Amino acid sequence: MIQRGFERRADGKEWKIDKQWKSFDEIADPMKRAAVAAEDQTFLENHGFDFNAMEKAYKKNERSKKLIGGSTISQQTAKNVFLWPGRSFVRKGFEAWFTLLMEVFWGKKRIMEVYLNVIEMGDGIYGVEAASQAYFHKSAHDLNNYQAAAIASVWPSPLKYSVTDPSDYVRHRQYLIRKNMRRLGPLDF
How far is CA 10 from CA 6, 14, 120, in A? Predict the structure, then answer.
């Protein structure tokens, strides 16, 4: 968040970190399902690592210039809370260590709460409450399936994609996320 704030200043924009913490129970269930549907469909079953997703990402990255990740929600939370952006073996090692600690000491409910409160969701917008207020003028507690999927659809690159003016790619991601949300059904945290 601090680094993004400085990047905004370097681009001639004002300092902005819009963030409002919400407890797990204050976040609508559709938002939790959208996060799982968009980012880590094995979240409740894995132990912080999805080795199949990592293997697929590794194989695809060998053949493509556009890199994709195979990180779980737990790994992304570890990176966002404890580490710095970028790609290196050192950071990945620390990420694995913090992921293990979080899985042992926090559990899935706390990991999801922290994830949905720290993830970048737009230019200077962090966490689901700030995103919900910015894009839909309502609390994260009141998000419906469509709105939750719209927010989750920009996570691959929240500075590039728009929740309120989605490209065809983002609209397609919203459709896939909603489809996966229906398939997942209620989540048992």
Answer: 6, 9, 18
